[in-house]
Each structure stands twice: as C-alpha cells, then as structure tokens.
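<goal> How does this chain fold?
<sample>
Here is the protein in question

***
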Amino acid sequence: MAAPLLRAGVQRVLRVPLIVFEILLGVLLGPSALGWVQPDEVTGVLSDFGVAMLFFLAGNEIDFRGIRGRPLRRAAGGWLVSLAVGVGVGVWIAPSTVTGVFIGVALTSTALGTLLPVLRDEGDLHSPFGRAAAATGAAGEFGPLLAISIFLGGRSPLAGALVLGAFALIAGLAIWLASRGPHPAFNRLTAATLRTSGQFAVRTVIFVVAALSVLSAVLGLDMLLGAFAAGVLCRVLLSGAAPDDREIVDAKLEAVGFGFLVPVFFVMTGVTFDLRALLASPRLLGLMAVALALLLVIRGLPSVVAAPEGSTAADRAALLLFGATGLPIIVAVTGIGVDRGELDSGAAAALVGAGMLSVLIFPALALALRRRSEGGDLVADAEEVPIEG
C-alpha cells in the first residue's frame, strides 16, 4: 500500500517505476534491515503465485498482431545474438561449461512483465516504440524460458526439446481450439456473471493458469512457461467477448495480479535479498557491477536492432536500457543453478543484485530518454507547420 503513495510523492520530481519502491520496501522490511518480515513457506508460495501471475499478465498483454513482422523478427534475432555472446562470455569466465551456460542464459533475459506496466502507465504501449519494446521483452523473456527447458532442465538437450515439443503441442492445440470462436455460450456466461459471485471468466482464467503451470511442472519444465502460455491462451479465448465485457475482465485480472499477487513477488524479492552479505564482500560487489555492465552489453546492445525506423538516438538508448532490464528470469535461472549445485550462491547473489539494480535504474533512465525524444519530436513537428498570414 505504501509503494503507490511513495511513487506519487516522488513522481513530481522523478518518474520511477512502481516496482522500484516494492523491492526497496522489501529490503527495508526484511532481514537485511529492520527484520520485520521473514521469508517462510507461506510467503514463498504467494511469491511463486505472484511471479506466475506476472508472466500470465505479460502473455495476456502482448499484442502478437501488433509486434509480428519486423519488430518480432528483429527482436528474436537480437536475442539469439545475446544468447551466443552471453553463453560465450559465461563459459569463458566460469569454472565449468554448465555454470557458464547458467550465467549466459541469465544475462540474456528481459523483464517483459516489468516493462509492460511501465509502458502502459506512460501511455506508450501501442506506439511504434512501445511495440518494439514489447517485442524485445517477449524475445528476452520467452527465449530464456525455452533455453531453461532445453539446456538447464537436468535432461539431455534432445530429451528437453522433445518434452518442450510435447508441451508446445498441448498448449498450441488449446490456443487453436480457443481461436475457433466466438464461443457464444462462454461469452453469455461471462457477461451474466461479471457482477455476481460467479465470476465465471475470472475463475476460468485462474484455472487455465493453474492447469498450464502444473502441466509444465509435471513435464519438468519451468512453471513460468506454462503461465506465459496461459496468458496467450486466455487472450485468444476472451477475444470473442463483447469489448466492454472483455475490458471488465481484464480489469479484474489486473486487480488480482497487480493489486495482490505480483507486488508480493517484488516485495519478497527484496526481503530475501541478502544485502548484508553483498555489502560485506568487495568481491561480490565487484561481480555485481560486472554483471550489470554485462547486461547492458550482452542484452542491451542487441536489443537496439528492434528499434523502429526513424528512431532517434534517445529512443535507441531507451530501448537498450529497457532490453537490459531483467530480474524474474535471473531469479529463476540462478535458483535452479544453486539447487543443482552448478552455481555458487555468491555468484547467484551478484547476478540477482545486478538484476535488481537493472530494474531500479534502467527503466527510470529509459523513461527520461523517451520523454526527451518525444519532446524533440513535438518541437520538430511544430517547426514543420507552415505559418500563414
């Protein structure tokens, strides 16, 4: 509750994404500072639901028709460059090849679920720049999920690809069936229960998120892959509903996600972050600084290729910063690496710390650059208008 209040107070001076305050408040309340909040099983489960809801909302928010073609093609190509460079750098600096792959995949992520609310709050989500940023985020979030499933799932790459193919077949079939709308019976029941205790559409969505998340977990894939696919499926399923009904359902889902579950994930990210250990080790602080710089180089620079034609230098720099913003995937990849004993906990803390700093710093700088670019565009447009008489 305090996070929006703090943001509203600071917003007069500096535009800072809301999640910055959620993470910082988590650090303040957690064991690293006041010690009022301790991570336990309940907060862990709620945090898992929160990150799943974050990925669902990202999948549900993406307008694939808007980003298909040049934006998505270039964004995917940029991510493949990031993967090749990231794994190469990771293998070079890590003590083993497997550890290097963990580090490389972590450094290729983009926090799409973080960027979309920022772009939407700025009214920039459906502009050419917003579509390019969304495409960059989609590639930087979906690509690492595929890499985790194929290379870091504890199977051989061939077995991982086969399991991933089975999941894609099931999810793709569900999306295909949903697209054969408009499903009049579903839409009628959705409309009839919008303002009753039935809430059929919301219950259906929660069921789909749970079902695909469990399916991905049963298949040994990352749960976030199922949550992301659920977002795409539900967007298609609800596309045949009346526009007003669909808007109400979306508002209810955002209320569940951004009003409850998603903030728990970001707050608990701050709570579980071991700030004292990081500050006590100059080596880890150095690793964190290096990882932050690598995010800019490995993930940020290749993201620029997705910039719309005619983009200003400020727009390209903003897209670089947005592309280098990563946290949820970094948390997921480092968690898997630590659990499997392939990644040192100190290195994991440095990577997560770099991800937190990227979320705290990069979007705010990108917004400032974007506003400067928009201001320049307005001035240029004004200069082109002829003055008569």
User: Anything to note?
Assistant: The chain is about 75% helix and 0% strand. Residues 378-389 have pLDDT under 50 and may be disordered.
